């Protein structure tokens, strides 16, 4: 169990670093988008390459941060149900969800994503748009992101099993107040 928990901690560390780094891609995407919009409006000059890089960066944010989101328990879930369960019952729900949904779904995507990426890479696929970019770097994000998500799903299952076995602390099953919750608190409701 110690080796599995060490593996889970390593996956957590990897995905935390990648997730935090991918946050900077949002700023880069906004700067590219704003620069392209300004050059188009003020100078009547635009670039398909800039449009395509901003799409690729936007996709990178979601694909690379998905595992980090799962790790931080900020993914979409049925909090109405899980929030009413004991920590042990919530851990069981997370184990079942990981084994029946997260791991099989990410495995299925990986089975199809690797050939999709490899064919693009081997052929040197380029966008059909004038001045467009190579497509394989964006397509590489799909298997990379889903590999990270698969690893994080496995790490979450390991951590929940360890909790049930009394070998790890209680998992955080509810997230901190965000968005609408914070607004409601500020309004005094």
From TrEMBL:
InterPro entries, per database record: DctQ, TRAP_DctQ
Pfam families: DctQ
Bilayer topology: Multi-pass membrane protein
Keywords on record: Cell inner membrane, Cell membrane, Membrane, Transmembrane, Transmembrane helix, Transport
Transmembrane segments: 21-38, 53-70, 91-114, 134-151
Subcellular location field: Cell inner membrane
Residue ranges annotated for the Tripartite ATP-independent periplasmic transporters DctQ component domain, each copy included: 30-161
Keyword Nucleotide-binding: no
Family: Belongs to the TRAP transporter small permease family.
Subunit structure: The complex comprises the extracytoplasmic solute receptor protein and the two transmembrane proteins.
Function: Part of the tripartite ATP-independent periplasmic (TRAP) transport system.
PANTHER family (alphabetical): 2,3-DIKETO-L-GULONATE TRAP TRANSPORTER SMALL PERMEASE PROTEIN YIAM, SLL1102 PROTEIN
Protein name: TRAP transporter small permease protein
Annotated organism of origin: Thiobacter aerophilum
């Amino acid at each position: 169990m110690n080796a599995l928990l060490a593996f889970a901690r390593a996956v957590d560390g990897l995905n935390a670093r990648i997730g935090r780094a991918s946050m900077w891609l949002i700023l880069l995407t906004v700067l590219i988008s704003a620069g392209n919009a300004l050059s188009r409006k003020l100078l009547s000059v635009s670039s398909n390459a800039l449009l395509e890089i901003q799409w690729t960066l936007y996709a990178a944010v979601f694909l690379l941060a998905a595992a980090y989101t799962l790790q931080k328990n900020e993914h979409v879930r049925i909090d109405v149900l899980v929030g009413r369960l004991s920590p042990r019952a919530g851990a069981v729900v997370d184990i079942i969800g990981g084994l029946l949904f997260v791991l099989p779904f990410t495995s299925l995507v990986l089975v199809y994503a690797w050939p999709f990426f490899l064919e693009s890479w081997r052929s040197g696929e380029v966008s059909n748009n004038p001045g467009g970019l190579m497509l394989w770097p964006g397509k590489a994000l799909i298997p990379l992101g889903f590999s990270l998500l698969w690893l994080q799903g496995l790490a979450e299952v390991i951590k929940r099993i360890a909790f049930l076995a009394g070998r790890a602390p209680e998992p955080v099953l509810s997230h901190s107040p965000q968005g609408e919750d914070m607004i409601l608190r500020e309004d005094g409701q």
